[in-house]
Amino acid sequence: MYPKPNSSPRRIKTSIMKTIRCERCDEVLNPDRVVTLELSNTDGKYYLVLPIDHVSQGGFDFGKACSLSQLKEDHPWMKGSKFMTSMVKNSIKKKL
Ligand SMILES: [Zn+2]
Fold it and tell me: How many domains does the chain have?
């Protein structure tokens, strides 16, 4: 698994056009459509925004659908939450 804790910016110095693959289904992703979820070392769950008291294991890239599936799995109370869907959409938009 990567990245190691405390490794600063994730995709450093390797080729800029590095292929990004979905952490969940291994599909090759369009860099503009990637959703980055942060993995918590504290509870082993993925978050769009890591809770303040959690230790981050780093960011992982997901396709949009997979990021939603992952979030629903890790946070069942979010199921069907429009809030979460719009959070994911916004996180994509910010990169465009
Ligand atoms: Zn995927």
Answer: 1
Task: Give the residue numbers spanning the domain of 81.
Answer: 20-93
Instruction: Report CA(74)–ligand 1 centroid distance (Å).
Output: 15
Whether residue 1 lies inside any domain: the answer is no
Report CA(59)–ligand 1 centroid distance (Å): 15
Q: How far is the CA of 35 from the centre of ligand 1 (A)?
A: 10
Closest Cα to residue 55, out of 40, 43, 65, 67? 40
pTM: 0.71
CA angle 75, 90, 76 (to 5 degrees): 10
| pLDDT per residue as tens, the chain (96 positions) | 555 555 555 555 555 567 999 999 999 999 888 999 999 999 999 999 999 999 999 999 999 999 999 999 999 887 667 777 888 888 877 665
